[in-house]
Write a structure and sequence with these properties.
CATH topology of the largest domain: Jelly Rolls
Structural class: alpha+beta
Protein name: AraC family transcriptional regulator
Helix content: 40-55%
Strand order of the largest sheet: 2-3-10-5-8-11
CATH class of the largest domain: Mainly Beta
Pfam families: AraC_binding, HTH_18
CATH architecture of the largest domain: Sandwich
Number of domains: 2
Distance between the termini: 48 Å
Order of helices and strands: HEEHEEEEEEEEHEHHHHHHHHHH
Largest sheet: 6 strands, antiparallel
CATH superfamily of the largest domain: Regulatory protein AraC
Number of helices: 13
InterPro entries: AraC-bd (IPR003313), Homeodomain-like_sf (IPR009057), HTH-like (IPR037923), HTH_AraC (IPR018060), Tscrpt_reg_AraC-type_HTH (IPR020449)
Keywords: Activator, DNA-binding, Transcription, Transcription regulation
Shape: elongated
Number of strands: 11
Strand content: 15-25%
Radius of gyration: 25 Å
Length: 306
């Protein structure tokens, strides 16, 4: 893994006015981040925010880290993989290690709004995995995610690390903010890609499941409700939730059962029947398979904790 010196050289930042925030993680801290079990998976090497009508240029040749650029306002030109593309408000860029690219803010148009871009260089044992989750839903490292308030807040809080100081607590919190932001961006990319390619309404299906939590729902019923064949309905549902429709419905039922066991004194048989299970023993086996303990053990553990 590269040290801080080549990382700084591989990313060149030019800014005409003092409106560019840059935070470079010092070498002594990078060594700790690389080894600490709570930070070794993913951590920033350098990050910043540029807000200006003036030009910002980023050039990377052969870095050992991943690079992220997020456009809050304005626009820029990304030259990556022999393609020049415009990066606009709400766009996200991810470039992998050893991939040369240049990025320049667009100031050619007089009416151009103020450019505001976040950039982060990150690495770690899990950096490839985090990046892969993003890149699988991107077009050669570029995608539109929209202007997300939670991402802007996470990045601003991460930049504030420079003023809060490099204490262990502050740094670990900052690292987890970065992990949270990348996970949230991956989820947003997945939802965006799914919505663009399908009229499938996952919220409506889940609402149907909740409204019928006390009875059985067949795959035929769910597919018919979505006006899809069983095959296409199941495929689309699993693409979005990573589980089958029926298993998702069962998980929902068990979550409801947990709430009933926590907050009511109804018998396990009554709870089973209220969820459409005539056989309480079958319900108990299903509950244990999903939750990890029997309904009675779950209820008893609740009172033990009190």
């Amino acid at each position: 893994m590269a040290t801080s010196t080549p990382i700084i050289k591989s990313t060149i930042i030019h800014q005409d006015q003092n409106d560019h925030i840059r935070l470079v993680i010092p070498l002594f801290l990078l060594k700790k981040l690389k080894l600490h079990p709570l930070t070794a998976g993913l951590y920033p090497l350098a990050l910043g925010k540029s807000t200006s009508h003036n030009k910002l240029n980023i050039k990377q040749n052969n870095a050992h880290h991943h690079s992220l650029i997020y456009c809050q306002s304005g626009s820029g030109i990304l030259d990556h993989k022999s393609k020049k593309r415009e990066v606009k408000r709400g766009d996200l860029v991810i470039c992998c290690p050893h991939q040369a690219f240049t990025f320049s803010t667009n100031t050619a148009v007089k009416s151009q709004k103020e450019n505001s871009f976040y950039w982060i260089n990150f690495t770690g044992k899990l950096a490839d995995d985090f990046a892969e989750r993003l890149l699988m839903k991107m077009d050669d490292g570029l995608a539109h995610v929209g202007l997300l308030a939670n991402i802007v807040e996470d990045f601003d809080n991460l930049l504030a690390l420079g003023t809060r100081g490099y204490t262990a607590t502050n740094v670990i919190h900052g690292v987890h903010l970065l992990q949270q932001a990348l996970s949230s961006l991956a989820l947003q990319l997945r939802l965006t890609a799914f919505n663009q390619n399908s009229h499938f309404d996952i919220e409506a299906v889940e609402s149907l499941m909740r409204n019928n939590i006390h009875q059985d729902l067949s795959l035929d019923t769910l597919a018919h409700y979505s006006q899809l064949s069983k095959f296409h309905f199941s495929k689309k549902f699993k693409e979005l939730t990573d589980t089958s429709p029926i298993q998702h419905f069962i998980n929902m039922k068990m979550q409801y059962a947990c709430n009933e066991l926590d907050n009511k004194n109804d018998s396990i048989k009554h709870i089973a029947e209220s969820l459409g299970y005539a056989d309480p023993y079958y319900f108990s086996r299903l509950f244990k398979k999903i939750v990890g303990m029997s309904p009675k053990q779950y209820r008893d553990s609740h009172f033990t904790e009190k």
